[in-house]
Every structure is written in C-alpha cells, then in structure tokens.
Amino acid sequence: MATAMTVDPSVAQPAAVATASGWIALLQESDPTLKSHALKKLLECVDTLWHEVAECLPDLEAIAEDADGCPLEMRQRAAAVASRVFFHLEEPTQALRLALDAGEGHFDVQQATPYVERLVAAALDAYCLERRKMLNDDEEPRTSAPMGKRPSQILAAGEVGLPMDQLQALVHRLLESCCAAGKFDHALGIALEARETEKVRDVLQASKLDSGLLKYALSSCVKVVQSKGFRQEAMAVIAECLQKQFDGGNSLAAYDLILVHQLLGQPNPVAQVLTGLIQGSEESSLLALQLCFDLMDSGDQAFVNSVAKKMKEAGDQDKEDLKERWERTEKVLTGGFPSELALSFLHKHSKADRLIMENLKKSLEERGSGGRSSVLHNAAVMTHSYLYAGTTNDSFLRDYLDWMKKASNWAKFSATASLGVIHASHVTEAMHLLQPYLPANPNGDGDGDGGGTPVSPSGGYAEGGSLYALGLIHGSQTGTSTEKREETIQFLRAHLRASHANEVISHGAALGVGLTALGSSNLAIVNELKEVLDTDSAVAGEAAGIAIGMVLVGSGAGNVHNSLPAADKEELMEVVSELKNYARETQHEKIIRGISMGLALMNYGQEENADALIEEMRSDRDPVLRYGAQYALALAYCGTGSNKAIRILLHTAVSDVSDDVRMASVIGLAFVLYKTPERVPLLVKLLLESFNPHVRYASCIAVGIAMAGTGDSESVSMLEPILDDMTDYVRQGALVGTALIYMQQSDTSNSRKIRSFRERLSNIIGEKHQSTLTKMGAIISTGIIDAGGRNCSLSLGSKNGFTKMLSAVGVTLWLQHWHWYPMMHMFSLALTPTYTIGLNKDFNYPKKYEINCKSKPSVFAYPKKLEEKKEEKKKRVETVTLSTTAKEKARQARRRAKEGDKGDSAMDIDASTKDDEGKGEDKEKKEGDAMDVDAKAEETVEKPKKKKREPEPTSFRIGNPARITIAQSEVCEFDLDQRYRPVRSEEKPFGVIILTDSTPGEEEDLGAVKAPSLEPEGETAPPEPFEWVPPPVSSSDGATAMDTTTDAADDKPKEESAESKSD
C-alpha cells in the first residue's frame, strides 16, 4: 500500500519555470478585457521573456495598428511591448517607431535606462539624417551608429515610416529637458547635428550668452560641422550673440567676434570692431593691434586689404589724439611691418650652417659623384635657397659665382629666381638687388629700375628668372607693403605685355604677376594673362594658366556661388568658361596642366560649392584634367576632414588608370586631413605597400606634409623601409617626406635617430653608384630639414585655426616640380617663420621680457653645426743618436789612429773623440736627469678628475625675441609677474605678442626692429662727414700742443730717411 508523500516546509522548493505562453495565448481571444490584461502582463515580463514574445510580433503590431477595433490604451500598450521586443532584437529604429506610437506614458525620455538611452540615440540619428536630406546635404553624419554599421547605413525617418512630426517633437522635448537641466552643451550639440539654426539661437539665449558656451559653439562649427551652408548660418547666429556681448562692454569678446566675421568673409564688421577698439582706451587700442597681427597671420592678404579700406572709410583719422594709433594700425595691415619683423628675425637669428653647402659642393665636384649633372647642380642651388630662405644671406653664391654660373638655359632661370627665395619679403631692396638681371625697360627709354639690355627671342633666362624672383620676394609673405606690391605689379605687367615674343620672359613675368597679385581677383590682370595664353606657347601658357589661378585663388570663379567682385563678376565668369573650353581644345599638355591647376586654385576653400566643377573635371577623358580635379578637391576641402572628400580621393587612388592622377589623389589626403594629421599615416599605411611606385611616392609625400615639423617617431619608422625601395623616385619621396617630419627637430629627436638620417643624406650625395633622382632627393632634403636658417617650418594652419591660403597654394605649386622643376621655388610660400617677439605700443621689443618653457633645453635646441675636419700634416721625425753609438764611433777612431803613421792626425782624432765622449756623457747625464724629473713628475702630478655631468634643468626661460616652435609653444607659458604683460594672456606664446607696461614711468631697455641692408656682413657703413678741430692746450715751455704735433710731424721724415740710409 503506497504511503502519502510529505512536503518539508523548511526545504526550498524549485521555482516554477517562467513562461509567457499563457499570456500570448490570450492575445488570440476576442474579448478586449482579456487582451488588455495579457498585454499588461507581457509588458511586465517582456524584458526577460522577449525571446518568447518575439513569436507574436505580428499580432502585437496588428493590435497596435487596429484603430477601429481596439481602444487607444490597448494600442499603446501593444506598441510598447513590441517596441521592447525590437529593442532586444537590436533593431532600434523599429523599436523607436513603435515607442513613438506608445506615447509618453510608456516612453519617458527622462528615464536613464538602456532602453530609453538607445532609442533616444536612434531618434537623434534618424532625425539628423532626415534633416540632412531635407537640406540636400549628402555628407555623412558624425553620429553614434550601431556596432557594425557605418553612419551612412542608418535609415532616415521617412525610410522606416517614422512620423517626422512625432520625431521632431521628441527631439525638441530633449532640447528643452537639456536646457532645463543646465546641460546647454548637450542641447547645442543636438541642434548643430540636426542643422536647426533657430534651435542654436534658442540654446545660446537660454544660457544667457555664456562666454564658454559661445566658444564651444564656435569651435564646434569650425571642427565638427561639415556643411559650409549651415556652418555660415550657425556662425551668423554666434556673431549676433558675440556682438551683444561686445556692445555690452566686454572687449574680450572682440577676439572671437573678429574670428567669426573673418570665417564668414565679412570685412565690414571686422573693420567696425577694430575701429571701436582704436577709439577706446589705451588698453583696448593695444588689443586692436594684437588682433591686427592675428588677422595678418591667417594668410589672406585680400581680406586684410578690404578691412583696411573699410577702416579708412569708417574711422575718424584726423583727430590728433588718435593719429598715432591709426598710423600703427595701418603700418600692421598695409605698411608691411609684419614682414619686416619676420625678415629681421630670420636675418639676425639665422643658424644656417655654411659648411653644409661647402660639403655638398665638394661632394658634387668629386669625380663620379654627379658633378657634371645639371639636375644635381640645380637641386644644390635650390637647397641653398631653402637653407637661407628669408635670411637675405647670399654670401655663398657670391663667393662661388663660377660654380653658380655652371647653370644654363632653364637652370639659369631657376638659379636667378632662387635669389627671390633667399631675399623673400625684402621689398625695400628688391629692385636694387635684382638690377643686374632685370630685362630692359619695355618702354625703351632706359630709365627706371628695369633698365638693361634688350633680350634676344632665344635667350632671356636670367632676365625671366629675375622677374620670377621679384614675384617671390613680394608674394612669399602676406604682410608685405601694399604700396610696394602695387608698384611691382605695374612693373611686372609692363614686362608681361611686352614679352609675347619671348616665352622665357613671359613665363617669369606671368609667375611674378600671379605671386604679387595673389587673391586680388583683378580683371585687368586676368585679361593680360589670358592674352599670353592665347599665344599658344606651351611654356608661357602653363605659367599663365597657373597665374590666373593665383589671381583668382579662393574666389570660386566658375561656380554658381562665388565671391567675385560684383562689378567684374560676369566677365570673370566668362573668362573661366573660356579657359575650360581652351583646355579641351589645345594640344599642349603643359597648357592643359596650367589651366587645370589654375581651376584648382580658384576652388580653394569652396567646399560643396565646387562639387559641380570638380565632378565635371573628374569625369573628363583627359588625365591631366582629372589630375587637376584631385587638387581642386583637396584645396576645396582643405582642413575640413570631409568624409566625402576622403572617400572620393581614396577611390581614385585605387581605380584611376593614370599614375599621375592616382599620385595626386593620395597627396590630396594630406590637405583634407592636415588638422588631424595622425589620421594620414593610418590611411596610407597600406598604400605604402602598393605595387604602383607612383602611389608609394605620393604616400611618402602625404605623410611628410601632414606630419611636418612633428618629429613623429611612428611616421618616421613607417617611411624608413621605403628609403631602400627598388624605385629611385620612391626613395626620393621617402627622403623628402622624412626631412619634412624632421624640420626644426633637435639632435635628441626620435631617440637621436635624426643624426643618423642627416649622415645618411650626406652619404647618399657622396656615393658614386646612387641614381640621380635619389641623390636629388637627398640634396633637396638637406635644404628642407634646415629651411630658413633653421627658423622656419611647413605649416598649413595659423595659430587661430585658420587654413593659411598662402601655405596651401605654396605646397600645391611646389608639388608641381614633378613636371616642371622651376616650381621648386614655391616652397618658400609654405614656410612659416616660428618666431615669438613681444612688442610695446611703439613696436619696440623689451630686451628683459622673458617666457617660461617647461621643458629641457635640449628638447628644442638648435642642431649642432658641423665641424670642419682638420688634416694633420705628418712631420718627419729626426733620427736620434744614442750615447752608445757615439762611444763606439770614438773607439773605432782611436783604433784607426794607432794604426796610422801620422801622429798629428791621430791627435786631432783623439781630441775630437774626447769631445764626442764628453758630449755623450753630458747627454747621458741630461737624459738621466730628464728621466728622473719625469719620474718625479709622474709621482707628483695626479690625473685630472673628470667633471661630473650636471643634470639638465627641467625648465628654462626664453628671451625676447626667440625661436619658439609650434610644438614648443604648447609647453610655454607667460610669466605675469614681470613688468611687461601680454594683452591676451590666455593664449599660448607664439608669434607677435603686444605687451602692456605695468610701470610706464621707469627707464626701459628696448630694441628696435630694423630690416637688413644689402651691405655684406662684417663691413660697417662709413661714418657721416664731420670736421674735427682739436682744442689748443698750452705746454710747459709755452708752445701749444698743435705746434708740438707739427714739429713732430716735420721731424718724422728726417728720422725715417736717416734710418733708411743706415740700412
């Protein structure tokens, strides 16, 4: 008989297996009450049993959409259950669609749960993407895409059936909740991503125009927002807020206000702000000077000229108390003072090592090392110009004129033009310096600065080079004098008009005009250059095409949206249209390349406005036009980091059939990403291993441009294997790229590997079996690594975050030396002097002003100069006669004397031997004494102790002025306890710093800024004429000093004649 089981209540029983099958079954019932109850229970357990509930998703969605048969609460509850199931299935977009139907009761954005946070992110992604589609912005959003998906794979609201009105209401609720919680930066980020200008304004006003938030908004617009159209709208809103701050008496807002208006390309408001500061207090006028120098640092001379013009129209410059302030401001903006500062610093603080050029010249002259190669000779001349760029020191060329005269034809043109690189910005002496080379005056009167001899149609290489040099002198810096620039433009235009018969002079004049009138958008100059183009000369036409691009740089000519002058807009558009047609009709490849590069320069900074022209050039059958399209894309999106531009460039780099086009597309990556340089080595890492040597070369150059002056060890190690590449021009690219990275690096850089790289360069130049192109790369790298007297670096950006137009143009044109070597000179446009100088209100520099540097001195020290090896002459050592030898000789003499018959002779020999013996004994005694003395000296004299190496200080102070590199400025700070303090102490010490004097009554130790003269170093100028009359002094005998002097002078010839007779 079975016994009944008893359950022990003290023992825990296993829990029942959880399942949702019962509640799911109730969904099939027709009774709404049962369905509602089942949905309520499913909502409670869906987070744990979602895998079971997923089977009835169709039923849940049917209930949620049944507006006729189900009440609202039931539909919302079904949508909430289905939304959570989709959330667990990792389908956030579908979950969001149902969550919006569920209503605020089931989807509260204030809850900090994983479900809410993920759906809010999905809502923002979908809303931002939908807003971009509405605004026709095809740029990929920088949003939080789900794992495994790119941002472009997120579906927009319309594609998944999300109601836009509900989505917008949700996003606006998020903005309001963020503002209510004081999270204004979050709200601002949402508004910027969603491209909602009004919401940006609302958020900024809700923060009561917080200065920190305005700075964050400006930074986000520049660095994050990739649509140019919306960026300008958002910055206009920021400008309104900053203007309110400035009008309220906050003068510190002037810096950001000018920055915004400059980004918007609005010179009139900038002029108004500067005028208000100049007319204010003494301190505000100093701030205006500082802002003027910052304005010049951006590298846009045309914009600066517009500001200066507006200031003259708006300001009251006749007031006596403000006259000096206006004069100083004009001196900065249009008077050429910034270029004088740079020129003076580069001249006085040049650390160029002459021995580098001496050794280079020696290596090339050695037999078998390429001494007769015109390629290497030209590269050496260019290296000299890089080493001394802007220093005005051409003593090496003057000392070795015979060596320089080896250049002939176009090498002669290039060598003469190199003087423009050495004397860059030396505008006051430009004409006098180039006087021996300039062609004859086109007017034929022989007067003026251009006087010379007429040039034959087949010659004129030095004359053409001198015109090119004139353009380099005036165009290498933005701060040169506007007056001098205008005079030079007229001079060059006269030669341009008269030189159609000589393509060499036309070439030099066209490049000179383009450099001097850079960015001016002058219609008359463009028409004159087009006339040169119409001559159908290949060499002159290429220069004319590039020059037209330089004159119209950044104007967007040829696009629907452009910044051309209103008066000449239609004519300039017609000229550009003719250029495009001419490029398709001409048979000269050089002319096509010149026009394509000109079109690329016109589209600098245009971003999406240039897309139509770029696409037209990219789809052309001519590879040269496609080549220009890559540079047009790179310059249009320079510094933006645009994903669209990167995608196109990378696609072209692996798909185009032309090697030149692929090379240009890879180099273009460096321009687009220069603000985030660390991304470039990662992008081109695989391209460095490409089978195509052009792609490998371009990858080396791209890494070098992006990482220039950083000394980045990873980039150097990436390029190191390429130094031994099988292809010679790839090795050249690796050498140049590494030299760019090592610019302005000390001997301790990269674990002292820089020293071995310098040695490698000199070894390659001296090796007999290296190819010419590899040697050329080593020679050019020698100049790049120490450019500008070791005081210059390659930098595409200014300290305020602007892309420097001049630097971008310079690098672009310098890269064209692959096709035309005189383009090497354009490198001087990209060189930025890395100096820091503190100036007072009178533009003098206090000598006792110092800056703190929190780093070891060796980290940022100049490299050591080479030491000349001294050859030791071998001296012949005299044979030492030993004392034993003398004794043996004496014995032999005595023996011979005894054997001989003549006694007198024997006596003579004995006497002589005795003398010899005596001398020998004396010598032995002296030697013995000397040995004793030496022994005693060894005992008494102790070996000198080696000095202990003192530990290097961890910080030091920098004088005024001094070189401070871009990397060094990050570890430098102002010492505010000094007498002189900067106007804007929140900035890093770099460039020109305007100082205030805390004790103006005390005596000052000041230095004046002076431009260098053409007098050779070490030769002082003769003194001014003077007349000296000595005062009469009475002597003791009554005669004056004058009489005594006269008598002495009269007696002097007699004494000299007596001495001569005695001799």
UniProtKB/TrEMBL annotation:
Keywords: Proteasome, Repeat. SUPFAM superfamilies: ARM repeat. Residues 19-348 form the 26S proteasome non-ATPase regulatory subunit 1/RPN2 N-terminal domain. Residues 834-1006 form the 26S proteasome regulatory subunit RPN2 C-terminal domain. This is ATPase regulatory subunit 1. Pfam families: HEAT_2, RPN2_C, RPN2_N. Belongs to the proteasome subunit S1 family. Residues 438-458, 871-962, 992-1063 are annotated as: Disordered. InterPro entries: 26S_Psome_Rpn2, ARM-like, ARM-type_fold, PSMD1_RPN2_N, RPN2_C. One of its GO terms (biological process) is regulation of protein catabolic process. Residues 1034-1047 have a biased composition (Low complexity). Residues 898-943, 1049-1063 have a biased composition (Basic and acidic residues). Residues 1022-1033 have a biased composition (Pro residues). One of its GO terms (cellular component) is nucleus. GO terms for molecular function: enzyme regulator activity.
